[in-house]
Specification:
Structural class: alpha+beta
CATH topology of the largest domain: Creatine Amidinohydrolase
CATH class of the largest domain: Alpha Beta
Number of helices: 10
Strand content: 15-25%
Shape: elongated
Largest sheet: 6 strands, mixed
Number of domains: 2
CATH architecture of the largest domain: Alpha-Beta Complex
Number of strands: 19
Length: 367
């Protein structure tokens, strides 16, 4: 099995258990992360997520559907899977579903477009498609030891990248140049891919939580928000640090310490069995106690693994946190036209407690 591929019969057995649980004859797996988790088939971020390498699972067969671009790769990465070579996966998929004798097939309705879904229904009218997104997501919710170690490797590489960038960022560099420096370092030092498009925002532009790097130069007296991560053996990291070009004034330093305190309060609240939303409330209470009425509008944190954003959501999920979950905690302050400050780290919850996976300094850093 290729290095870094984490797959095996246990995962396939768990997927097949969904057939009985939901009275299905088969599963069609379309999400790239789910394909890799179940079979080991690895697609890049640029590949067609829906149809390339679609998996079809029945009680006695497991097929990987691929055109000629992917058949050799699939045979190497997925030796235990039957490769069904097709010329055009989408139009040929209904025929494959029918040929397997399926009557009820679980599918990922959130990935397939309305047109995709209707094409499958009209092309295979005897096959009932059953949305199964939540059940398939839950299979990946608790990370096994191999997954935890892969995420930890991605986080360690991200910490190293940040340390390197602190020595290379200079006044006058543009946001794009800073982002390119991060991306290039990752590529040159073992990352399989970026986890997402790097964010580098200077000064007032940092008030846009997911702004895009521009030609705006790094200047003295400004904050520089960096949100970046990489992919190692399929698994991802996601870290944000806000650093300062010159000493921040007292008000800015106080805001930074407030964000850091919010993250720490949230981390201190996490324990096995604690509700996701209880962690979110604990984080926001720090701002309320300090007299803030405008608190960050985005979620406090999200799961991380084969996808940058996956379950659980610390803000929107009502369920408990469980050992084996990996997630971010990322509070922030955003004052439109003035400044943005965010601190984000990746965490692993274990039976013994919470482990911080990205360990770069959270103190005020001045360049």
């Amino acid at each position: 099995m290729p290095a870094g591929v984490i797959a095996g019969p246990t995962r396939l057995e768990r997927a097949r258990a969904l057939l009985d649980a939901h009275e299905l004859d088969g599963l069609m797996v379309s999400r790239s992360a789910a394909k890799r988790w179940l079979s080991g088939f690895a697609l890049s971020r640029a590949d067609d997520e829906i149809w390339s390498g679609t998996l079809l699972v029945t009680r006695d067969r497991q097929l990987l559907v691929a055109d000629s671009r992917y058949t050799e790769q699939a045979s190497v990465e997925c030796p235990d899977w039957e490769i069904a070579e097709v010329r055009r996966p989408k139009p040929e998929m209904p025929g494959l579903l029918s040929s397997l004798g399926l009557r009820r097939c679980g599918a990922e309705a959130e990935i397939l477009s309305h047109d995709d879904w209707e094409s499958l229904r009209s092309g295979a009218p005897d096959v009932e498609l059953v949305p199964l997104d939540d059940a398939l997501r839950e299979l990946r919710l608790i990370k096994d030891v191999d997954e935890q170690e892969a995420i930890a490797r991605a986080c360690a590489l991200t910490d190293r990248c940040f340390e390197q960038m602190l020595g290379t960022i200079r006044r006058g560099m543009s946001e794009r140049e800073v982002a390119l420096g991060i991306d290039t370092w990752f590529r040159a030092n073992g990352a399989e891919d970026l986890a997402f498009d790097t964010i580098a925002l200077v000064g007032a532009r940092a008030s846009m939580p997911h702004g895009r790097p521009s030609d705006t130069p790094v200047a003295g007296g400004e904050a520089l928000l960096l949100d970046f991560g990489c992919q190692v053996d399929g698994y991802r990291s996601d870290m944000t640090r806000t650093i300062f070009i010159g000493e921040p004034d007292g008000e800015t330093a106080a805001m930074y310490r407030l964000v850091a305190a919010s993250q720490q309060r949230a981390a201190d609240t996490v324990a096995p069995g604690v509700a996701c939303q209880a962690v979110d409330r604990a984080s926001r209470e720090v701002f309320v106690e300090a007299g803030w009425t405008e608190i960050f509008g985005h979620g406090l944190g999200h799961g991380i693994g084969l996808e940058t954003h996956e379950a659980p959501s610390l803000t929107y999920d009502e369920g408990p946190l469980l050992p084996g979950m990996t997630f971010t905690i990322e509070p922030g302050i955003y004052l439109a036209g003035r400044i943005g400050i965010r601190i984000e780290d990746d965490f692993l919850l274990t039976d013994a407690g919470l482990q911080r996976l990205t360990v770069s300094s959270r103190d005020i850093i001045v360049l």
